[in-house]
Structures are given as C-alpha cells and as structure tokens.
Amino acid sequence: MRQSNKKKGRRISMEDNKTAIQILTKTLEELAARTTQLEFENQELKKSSDDWFKYYCEKKEQVEKLTNELDQVKAELKALKGEKGE
Known about the structure:
Elements: E1 6-7, E2 10-11, H1 14-85
Antiparallel strand pairs: 1-2
C-alpha cells in the first residue's frame, strides 16, 4: 500500500518541505559542530590523562629507586652494627 503525500488530509507543500529541510540542515550543522567540540575536548582529556599517567610512572619509579637505596643503607648499617658487636 503506497503512502500518500497527505498530512491530515492536506497536501505537503513545497514550502513545508523547504522548511523541514532547513530545520534538518541546521540540526545537522549543530550536531557536527558539537561533535567537533566534543572530539577536541576528548583529545585534551586524553592528553591530560596521558601526562598524569607519565608523571605517576616517573614518581613510582623514583619511589622504588629510593626504597631500594634505603634498603641497601639499612643492610649496610646492620652489617656495620654486626661488625662492631663482634
């Protein structure tokens, strides 16, 4: 069954079609602009996240290095105390 070009008993005019197309075009333009903005914001967040992760990894590595150095110093002090106690 074919649909008719009638809307509530009246024909859809060319002006109605033009208005609908204009509204849809404007909506698409707004969506495209918003999508572009959101993609930019997402890239900025990802960059910020990557920067923070890099900072975290550097600090974690530094803590591990300092912890190892501290453990070595503790072992050396314990050895020195053992030598003096003999």
